[in-house]
Structures are given as structure tokens and as C-alpha cells.
Amino acid sequence: MIYELTILTIAALIVAWLYVRNGREKKRFKQEKQQVKIIHNEALEAERRRHELLLDGLSDALFLVDHDGNVCYANIAARKMFSDRNLIGQSPQAAFPDARFIEAIHHCEQKNKPVVQRIVLPQQLSPLGGRENRGVNAWLLDVAPLPAEAYPQAKLRVLLRDLTAEFQSEQVRKDFVANASHELRTPLAIIQGYLENLLEDGGLRDHHQASRFLSIMSKHTDRVSRIVEDMLVISRLESGEAAALSIEPFEFHSCVQDVLERLEHLIVSQEAKVHYGAVDRTLLITGDRFYWTQVLFNLIENALKQNPRPGLTVTVAAKQEDDGIHISVADDGIGIPSSHLPFVFKRFYRVDQNHTNSAIKGTGLGLSIVKRAIEAHGGEISVSSLPGHETKFSIKLPEPSDT
Ligand code: ADP
Known about the structure:
403 residues, 10 helices, Helix Hairpins, alpha+beta, 3 domains, Beta-Lactamase
């Protein structure tokens, strides 16, 4: 009996021990499982953060759209674009009010194919529904479906790139080509017309008429070459501007004298007075003398050209001040009406009422060259005009840096 009791006690102890051990192992196993889960989650989180860092490094705005059709992720560029407005959980319609964006997203969803599209928004609209202060703006919209096995939470990605700067410079180039062709076509058509007259039977026999035609043709040929030269100067200045300059210090006073010598004939024939006593004789400018000569030539010639009647006074001034160099060219001629002032630096812009019909018009490129040349030197130009009193072009050049 005692023997049996002992066996039973031992057996009970073994069972109890096994039970306790099993419990401990189960607990350890649970703890280990939890540990593995934590490590796995940490690895996943680190991976997610790495991806986010990569996507936040993009300068393009990137959104992910989930299976309910709501934004489920937006990178930093996208958040900035929406001024940190919370987009998560919002529908793309709420984010992009323009119908073309939504159509592109729907098209991508339905066809399960990428959609890449350039969208130009008129005047003041932005894809975000706000008002743009850059005028017409352009965007590249790139929507693509995401593979379900790699991205279970999101069904497509939307990438938005701001193309406004490229679009605007492309537009400027197109306008330039269109304007240039238009400006060249007129004198070329005139030359062609006179040539046809000369080539007609007997056209050359009337020597007096033939020489009149030739002199008109020569005037228009000069105009064609002046337009082409001006266009080349602009294009040189625009192709990497500063790199196109050959910078050296030169005496500004002697540059003014060179220009006045070149214009002497016009100054004398128009009985104009040019004062340049206010040009500091010691003033040195560090810049490209070729372009500065052109700047002064265009400004002084404009004053003379626009005021052919005798008695015009042109005043040139230049001095060093605390905040940089100030240069001005002023005249007391007919001036520029205030409605035209904002546009005179635009290419091919002319104030027509200043030109008589008989005179060959300027190229309309003179002030645009002036502006670009000054900007290539880091400076700026402005104009003010009180017709009949003072029309003044003021240039400000920053202090040259020591580097
Ligand atoms: P343009 O070749 O016609 O002179 P610019 O670009 O040099 O072209 O000048 C643009 C317009 O600005 C000219 O059509 C002219 O009417 C006006 N303008 C420029 N300077 C003066 C000035 N000093 N006085 C009056 N009008 C001026």
C-alpha cells in the first residue's frame, strides 16, 4: 500500500513538474514570439522610414491613392504644395479641383494603365484651386497603377511636377521667334517688291527711278541686318548671361565719351545738348565695356531718335553711392506715356505714337538689350517719364563682391 502511494505521489509530482515546465516553455515561447514580432515590426518600420526619406527627397509632389479612392500618402513636396493642408483620407477631387486631373486619375484606374499628361492652367488658377500669382502655369501629371502584391494598401500613385518656369521660357522663345519673323518679313517684302519692279521690263532703264528704288532697298536691308544683330546680342546675353561677358574694370567716363563721339553727327544735326558733367571722372566699373557702350548708346540714341526737333537736352550722370553705383540717362523730350511705361523693356515693343509714318521704325529691341545687359551685370534698370519734362532711365549696380 505504502509502495503504491509512493508511486502515485511520484507520478503526481512528475505530472506537476511536467505541467509547470510546459507552462514555462509556453510562456518562453510566447515571449520569444513577441520578441520576433517586435523585431519584425521594427524592421518594417525602419524600411518604411527609409522609403519615406527617399520619397521626401523628391522635388516632385507624390501622392498615393488607396482602394477607397482616398489619398493615403503625400510626400513633403506634396504637403508643401498644399501648404501643409491635411490630405490624408481626402478624395483626389478635394485635392485637385481641375477636372483634367480627376479624368486622368479615373482613366488610369479604369484602364489600369499609366497616364502622363501636361496640363496648362489659364491665368490665375492653380491645380490646388487657389490663385496663382505667376499667370499661366503648367504641370506634368503622371498617374500610374501600383502592383497589388508590392503595395497592398495603395492602388495608384500620382506624381505632379511644376513645369511653369520651363513653360514660360518656352513661351518667351516662341513669341520671340514669331515676333522676329514678323519684323523681318516686313522689310523683306518691301525689298522683294522693289526688286520685282526693277526686274520688270525697262525697270532699270529709268536710272533716276532705279536709284531711288535701290536706296529704299538699301535702307530696308540695313534694317534687316540691325534686327539680326540685335537678336544675336540678345541671344548671346541670354545664353548663360554672365559667362558671355568679359569682365574688366574700365573708366565709365571714357565709355560715355566714346558713345558721344559715335553719336556726334546726330547730336550736331539735331542741335541737341548732352550734359555729362555729373559723371564721376574717377568712377570705375567692373564689367564688359562692350555691353556698357551698347547700353549707353541705346539710351542716348533713343532720346535723340525720339526727339528729332532741335533743342533737346540729354543729361548723363553716374556716381558711386553707399549702396552701389547709380547711373542715369535723362532727356526733356516727348517722353513715354505712362500706359506704355511697364512694357518698354519688352522685346519688339514700341510706342507707336512716337514714330512718324515716314521714318523707319526702330527694332524695338534696344531697351530689351539694355535691360538684359544690365541684369547680366547683376544690376537693374527702371524708367520714369513726365512727358515734356523728364524721361529718366535709372540704373543701379550692386557693389562688386570681393570674391
Ligand atoms: P526702338 O528700337 O523702337 O527704339 P527700344 O526698345 O529702344 O526700341 O524702345 C522701345 C520704345 O520706347 C520705343 O518705341 C520708344 O517709343 C520708347 N522710348 C525709348 N526711349 C525713349 C525716350 N528717351 N523718349 C521717348 N520714348 C522712348
